[in-house]
User: Which sequence fits this backbone?
């Protein structure tokens, strides 16, 4: 059963306005066997959700054009055909931002800097829930 899971290539959308973070995350996730799409601002993120249909979204909060809160709100409002887990990865570690994201239906919240193993664990957890959430 586990071997069948590894054959499925899950697509991860990495949304961050810092090119170094995008490239490092892209490289590390590709080594883990994921397909990667990227966006560097909120408007591009929404376009990529529509075009790429990602399985999991890693979303920064502080970005140009549309911030992560606005992107999360639009994802939850406009893309209801399937559950798309959104993992917030932000330098904003305050309780207010965390609560706001969870109240807006974020699925997980990680504070930068965070270890890559926490990102992978979050992605794997969200992927394991996809069949349950899309029934």
Assistant:
């Amino acid at each position: 059963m586990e071997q069948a899971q590894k054959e499925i290539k899950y697509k991860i959308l990495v949304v961050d306005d810092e090119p170094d973070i995008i490239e490092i995350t892209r490289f590390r996730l590709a080594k883990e066997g994921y397909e990667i799409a990227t966006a560097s601002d909120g408007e591009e993120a929404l376009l990529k959700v529509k075009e790429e249909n990602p399985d999991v979204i890693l979303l920064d909060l502080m970005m140009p054009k549309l911030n992560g809160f606005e992107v999360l709100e639009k994802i939850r409002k406009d893309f209801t055909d399937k559950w798309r887990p959104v993992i917030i990865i932000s330098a904003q570690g305050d309780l207010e931002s965390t609560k706001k994201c969870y109240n807006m239906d974020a699925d997980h919240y990680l504070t930068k800097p965070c270890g890559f193993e926490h990102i992978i664990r979050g992605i794997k957890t969200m992927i394991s829930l996809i069949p349950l959430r899309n029934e």
